[in-house]
Amino acid sequence: MSKKRRKKESGALKPNPTSLGRALMFTHSLVPRLGFLQNLFGEKLDRIREGDWDGADLTLEQYEEALSLTDYIDDMPEAISPETEMLEVAKRILQYGKAWFEYFPDAEANPIDDAMYDRLMSAYKRYGGIEPTGVVPAGADKSTSISHPVLHNNLDKCYRIYDSEDIPEGTAEKDSVESWLSRCYEILSLPRTETIRLMLAHKLDGVSVIADVGSDGRITAAQSRGDEEKAMSMPGLIGLKVCSSILGSSFKSCTIQYEMFCTNDQK
User: What are the CB-based long-range contacts (under 8 Å, 24+) for 202-209?
Assistant: First the structure.
């Protein structure tokens, strides 16, 4: 199958949210396919671990099976909770899509398109799932222990400014900018009268980097996400100056998390 992002949005297997009976019938018809999908994406993840991208690709039929599951979980009536096996399949699909995005040199080759990934991720979180990390292919393994577990597994988003604002329909994340700032003040032991400056920028999809920065503003250690149990060492970033050397007299070092990307001119 040609390695192009699949833009097709199928509605053929969506449950009717107004009919519990039809939803139960759909669940019954889906159960035999869950085992197939679980084995399929388990095998595809193994191919990625081996660096076999051709073997990891999906046929059109396999993609449509994954899309059908995404459609179902995304539109599942509130009266039904997904089976544990269904959430495990969803996790494997998310790991699969993330691994393609993070490690395959041509991002357009990802068999799981952005729209499908985002819908499945939102539904997965809505039922208590935590965004999984991908898998590391052969030849790319510069694994190291995770130095900052909280930052390493922090993949949450927020869709509102204040706690009092409504959460957009269909989103699982309940956090707000207000709550995040409150936690920042608490962690830094800042009085609420202290004024801090925020910088807002467009979201850029790059490589997530967690770096320790010395008092001179240069990176002393850096790593990116590998999987749930290990990080990826990035020794080439050591010594890179990322901020002013003035970090405050009370700071000998700090840790930052940011997105790293290259423009075409810098490749």
Answer: 204/259, 204/261, 205/259, 205/261, 206/259, 206/260, 206/261, 207/102, 207/259, 207/260, 207/261, 208/257, 208/258, 208/259, 208/260, 209/234, 209/237, 209/257, 209/258, 209/259, 209/260
